[in-house]
């Protein structure tokens, strides 16, 4: 979520090829980025929808939002 160009997800995908990583971010951020066999990019908004997954990585996300917005993000994570 809010993964930008996916530098952390790329490192995880390369180190652990059995793990499938999805980078979720807004369209202007992920437009034109190409995934790999176990890395894909998905257009989305963490305030509206977070795709189902086994784990969600929030690196450098919560510091940028108000407490209320952080609660909304975490509620969306919990839905899946």
From TrEMBL:
Gene Ontology MF: a single term: O-methyltransferase activity
Alphabetical list of InterPro entries matching this protein: COMT-like, COMT_C, SAM-dependent_MTases_sf
UniProt entry keywords in alphabetical sequence: Methyltransferase, S-adenosyl-L-methionine, Transferase
Record bears the keyword S-adenosyl-L-methionine: yes
Keyword S-adenosyl-L-methionine among record annotations: yes
Domain O-methyltransferase C-terminal intervals: 1-79
GO process terms (BP): methylation
Xref: Pfam families: Methyltransf_2 (PF00891)
PANTHER family: O-METHYLTRANSFERASE
Protein name per its UniProtKB record: Trans-resveratrol di-O-methyltransferase
Taxonomic source organism: Sesamum radiatum (Black benniseed)
């Amino acid at each position: 979520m809010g993964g930008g160009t996916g530098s952390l997800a790329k490192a995880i995908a390369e180190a652990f090829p059995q793990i499938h990583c999805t980078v979720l971010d807004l369209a202007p951020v992920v437009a034109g980025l190409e995934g790999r066999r176990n890395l894909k990019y998905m257009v989305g908004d963490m305030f509206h929808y977070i795709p189902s997954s086994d784990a969600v990585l929030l690196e450098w996300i919560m510091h940028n939002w108000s407490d209320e917005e952080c609660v909304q993000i975490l509620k969306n994570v919990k839905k899946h």
